[in-house]
Amino acid sequence: MTTESPRWFTSSYSNNGGACVEVATNLLPVHVRDSKVPAGSVLELPAAAFSSFVTGVKNGHFGAV
Predict the structure, then answer these.
(1) DSSP bridge partners of 63
(2) Contacts 24+ apart (CB under 8 A), 36-45
């Protein structure tokens, strides 16, 4: 069991008034949460799955927002 706390950050591309997600990659699995509800639910994703998701976003596989 780890006693380390997640270190949350948002993307450097986030400049939308807080409507984004925060990610903590210092823990495995990777932790993801809604930046507007920091005390809310947290998703835990295997590092490989999160990495694949980020690659897909960078490659435009999910369409424009």
Answers:
(1) none
(2) 38/8
